[in-house]
Amino acid sequence: MSERRRSGSLPRRIDVRLAELVEPRGEFAEKQTLAAMAQDAGCLDLALERLREDDFWHPFHRRVFALMGELRGQSKAVDAVSLLARLPNDAAALGELSAGVVAVLVFPDLLEQVARLGQLRRWQRAAAEICALTAGGAADDAEDIISHAESLVSAAQMAQGATSLRPASEVTASVIETLDGAIARRHAGVAAVELSTGLDSLDLSSGGLKGGWMVVIAARPGQGKTALGLQCARHNLAKGKRVGFFTLEMTAEELQRRNLAANTGVNLRKIIDGQVSASERDLICQHAAEQQHWPLFFEDLSLLNAAQLRSKARRMVGLHGVDLIVLDYLQLMEGSGEFNRATELAAITKTVKNTAKELKIPIVTLAQLNRKTGDGETKPAPHHLRESGSIEQDADMVLLLSRVEKTDEDEPAASVNDRAERHEHATLVDLAKNRNGPTGEEVFVFEGRFQRFVPPHNHKQHDDHDERGSFAARAFKEAS
Questions:
Q1: What is the DSSP string of 277-337?
Q2: What are 290-347's pLDDT values in tens digits?
Q3: Which domain, by its residues, includes 407?
Q4: Does residue 213 sit in the same domain as residue 126?
Q5: Whose CA, among 6, 94, 122, 436, lies 20 to 30 Å from 380?
């Protein structure tokens, strides 16, 4: 027995010339598999479901397999006679497929062998192409080469032969498992959602975030979309989830300052300017020590295209096991430059949606609305999403933020000015699209100086770092 088989480890790395590699092949297994398919309809259907044309190494075997699939799709007979009628010049080769009785008896083993050898060849070809790419690449092309290499690996992984067919028993068991999890969370006194929007009451009405979803939070500049994205991240971190955050507009340090302001109740401006008291500094340092241990991972970028997003998101999930990704924000992503901006954004949003589905996690995507909306005169709607109507089409959930300016003749001017100085205003959160249930509107107070949204009944005018701020910090700490 070889050293590899005894130890169970991978073979040591060796130098080989790519041109000298011999592709894994199993011509006898391929021939017997086709023989069984021509002999038995059950074998035919199973092979057409489980195998791909490129699972067959021999070109003639690939042609026969493709022809069998074509005939079956047309509800025509698949046997030696029908095959010969379509391939009259290959009578001798087809004659070898007529004695398939024994092959039918051992068909499951033949099927497995052909599938595994096909997969090995795909991995070998992917590895060879990656080697060729890296050998001829320049440093400036590294990001594109890595992205293409990862797409090759992903394609090989996705061709593993896993069936998309799921029996009702499996699906039903999954539904009951999800139901039991929601019941357990309710009994524990927490919202019956696995992943939070960042707003508890909205979780109850919307059902929260779901794996595979593209969730859009849209607003005009300065309306708090980044603050809500961060609040969404914090709420899920408090649930023990792991979060990735792509930031194209702000630095990671700016985002963490906002998290500190939200958790401590210390005015963000005071943190930025260093105008904090000794007690506030102690509180900030205490929470900063806690934030250092958050499973929160930033991609701090100024430029990002769709391929890079997909590549980096895969790495986030593979290396760090993130349960949720926040993207801030969509319209800052780069296109190819070959098409108009609407067409480029359509391709980008499709990539975001497909990435969420592939990784089975929600991607919360922040986006800008047209400037003429959400100004108190024009109520935002999904079609107001800037530069592309495809955002609404691809999204599973759309949240639109807009400022609510209430005029109260009895409110003293000093009170109005005080609210403006504190950067506090009522915000309408419109759940404009929800693939999982009802839509609707709710009003929250955006506390700009703390970069957080609170329900109106929880909001009161207060000084910095008072009991409201302390309560928010304690609640987060207890939840986590």
A1: -HHHHHHHHHHHHHHTTS-EEEEE-S--BHHHHHHHHHHHHHHH--SEEEEE-GGGSB--S
A2: 888 888 888 887 778 887 788 788 888 888 889 999 998 888 887 766 667 777 888 8
A3: 190-479
A4: no
A5: 436
